[in-house]
């Protein structure tokens, strides 16, 4: 039985749906078999280099970015931004109501928290910022520029948080294990700022070349987008929020034909394609956890204001952090707060007291109860932390001695085999003249791969690339 048959069958069984409102400390993926190490596919050569992310396994991230889980609301992100006793402030991408899951959303939330703090603080106060990601550094930069004494406390031994650029002699270009793109470049200043920092970035048009398992190039059907659009419209009329998976069942997606059509692709395959290459990729969440009230609407037009960063996203982080005092490799384990001060305890046993603090650790860390708050956070804050979801999107970067592919398309996707883990690839060759491919994996597939070693991830990636090998049957579909 093909796994796509299992997919539709599992949707049919969702009349009783058990949902988890938070990401567990050590996620146990379901629905996707744990990959095993097997010989690399013969059509795709072994790479000369490989780097990968594993954000769900990272103790200082516990996921990639937040998503709207079932029964969560945008108001809960606003609730997280409310000052606590005018002493404690939360920031980060999960606190952004306008642009969650993005660099600009995280940065904006840090700046917002800093402004709220400045309105309440007296000159000369000492401020702690917990977390040296873009949210924390943006907050610290603004506070320092306003004349406050600021200390940034970071659990890692580097800046950036989930912005992670790897640059070494083995790779001809910087490798971005975190964000690579500037989304909605026309409506935020990142494009201009990176230009000012002389960071290379270029236009990225997300028009995919779609291939079947046999390597045939095919046109995208609207069946998948139509099914998700119909499910979201149905859900919007319901009295209660429900999972996207359940909404798909209610609107008949479980009954989509599994009979192969053009190029051996069925209607059920096209639904899976939409979920794997767009809906789940945007949220990092399985469809049975994703809110159907706030799930992303399928795109009807190609975004023309997306740019890809080629020269090192971390340059932005380094610039913001100039002259800031950062305490590295220091895990905050306890935050006590009163109406007059904030006390912090570090994993080393050290303690310090400041006048106010901004907490920018990721939502996944807050959900894991790694930090003890004394007293407990207000109910609205705790409710928001529990209700929102933490999704996972990971990347694998593969460097080859020479290309084994002959397409010049920048964006690759596959349809017709949902056992493939990496369904979306970026071909860096046209952008950098380097034979480098970047694969994306999200949701349950990402959680499963996070638990295995580099060899198994490489094997899964190479198998996913077989449709693009030169020897594949890459004839256009009729």
Please summarize what this structure is.
The chain has two domains: 1-64 and 208-301 and 392-478, Alpha-Beta Complex (Polyamine Oxidase, Chain A, domain 2), CATH 3.90.660; 66-162 and 313-385, FAD/NAD(P)-binding domain.
Description:
By secondary structure, the protein is an alpha/beta fold. It has two domains: 1-64 and 208-301 and 392-478, Alpha-Beta Complex (Polyamine Oxidase, Chain A, domain 2), CATH 3.90.660; 66-162 and 313-385, FAD/NAD(P)-binding domain, CATH 3.50.50. It has 14 helices and 23 strands. A hairpin with an 8-residue loop joins strand 6 (165-166) and strand 7 (175-176). Helix 2 packs across helix 11, helix 3 runs parallel beside helix 4 and helix 6 crosses helix 7. The longest helix has 18 residues, at 103-120.
List keywords for this structure.
478 residues, alpha/beta, Polyamine Oxidase, Chain A, domain 2, FAD/NAD(P)-binding domain, 2 domains, seven-stranded mixed beta sheet, five-stranded parallel beta sheet, disordered N terminus
**CA-to-CA gap between the ends?**
26 Å
Residue share in helices?
25-40%
Number of strands: 23
Profile the largest sheet: 7 strands, mixed
Radius of gyration: 23 Å
CATH fold-level name of the largest domain: Polyamine Oxidase, Chain A, domain 2
Low-confidence stretches: 1-10, 12-41
By CATH reckoning, the class of the largest domain would read Alpha Beta
Shape: globular
| Backbone structural class | alpha/beta
């Amino acid at each position: 039985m093909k796994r796509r048959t299992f997919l539709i069958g599992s949707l049919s069984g969702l009349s009783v749906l058990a949902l988890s409102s938070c990401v567990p400390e050590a996620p146990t993926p379901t629905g996707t078999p744990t990959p095993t190490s097997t010989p690399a596919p013969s059509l795709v050569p072994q790479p000369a280099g490989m780097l990968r992310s594993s954000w769900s396994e990272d103790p200082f991230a516990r996921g990639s970015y937040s998503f709207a889980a079932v029964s969560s609301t945008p108001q809960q992100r606003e609730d997280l931004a409310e000052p606590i006793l005018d002493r404690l402030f939360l920031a980060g991408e999960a606190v952004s109501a306008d642009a969650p899951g993005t660099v600009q959303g995280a940065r904006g939330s840090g700046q917002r928290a800093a402004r709220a703090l400045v309105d309440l603080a007296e000159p000369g106060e000492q401020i702690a910022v917990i977390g040296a990601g873009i949210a924390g550094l943006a907050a610290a930069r603004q506070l320092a520029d306003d004349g406050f004494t600021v200390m940034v406390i970071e659990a890692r031994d580097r800046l950036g948080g989930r912005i992670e650029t790897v640059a070494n002699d083995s790779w001809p270009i910087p490798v971005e294990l975190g964000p690579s793109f500037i989304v909605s470049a026309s409506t935020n200043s990142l494009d201009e700022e990176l230009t000012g920092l002389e960071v290379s970035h270029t236009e990225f048009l997300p028009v995919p070349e779609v291939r079947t398992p046999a390597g045939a190039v095919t046109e995208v059907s609207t069946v998948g987008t139509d099914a998700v659009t119909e499910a979201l419209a149905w859900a919007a009329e319901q009295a209660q929020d429900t999972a996207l998976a359940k909404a798909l069942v209610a609107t008949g997606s479980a009954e989509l034909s599994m009979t192969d059509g053009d190029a051996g692709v069925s209607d059920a395959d096209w639904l899976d394609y939409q979920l794997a290459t767009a809906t789940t990729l945007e949220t990092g969440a399985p469809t049975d956890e994703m809110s159907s009230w706030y799930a992303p609407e399928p795109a009807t037009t190609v975004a023309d204001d997306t740019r890809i960063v080629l020269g090192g996203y971390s340059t932005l982080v380094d610039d913001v952090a100039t002259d800031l005092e950062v305490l590295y490799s220091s895990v905050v384990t306890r935050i006590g707060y009163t109406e007059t001060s904030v006390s912090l305890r570090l994993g080393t046993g050290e303690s310090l007291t400041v006048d106010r603090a901004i907490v920018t650790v990721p939502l996944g860390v807050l959900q894991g109860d790694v930090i003890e708050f004394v007293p407990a956070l207000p109910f609205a804050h705790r409710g928001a932390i529990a209700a929102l979801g933490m999704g996972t999107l990971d990347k694998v970067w593969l460097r080859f001695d020479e290309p084994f592919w002959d397409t010049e398309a920048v964006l690759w996707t596959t349809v017709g085999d949902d056992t493939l883990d990496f369904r979306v690839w970026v071909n860096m060759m046209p952008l950098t003249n380097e034979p480098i491919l970047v694969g994306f994996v999200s949701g349950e597939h990402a959680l499963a791969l996070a638990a295995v070693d580099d060899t198994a991830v490489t094997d899964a990636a190479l198998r996913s690339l077989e449709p693009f090998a030169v020897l594949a049957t890459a004839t256009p579909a009729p």
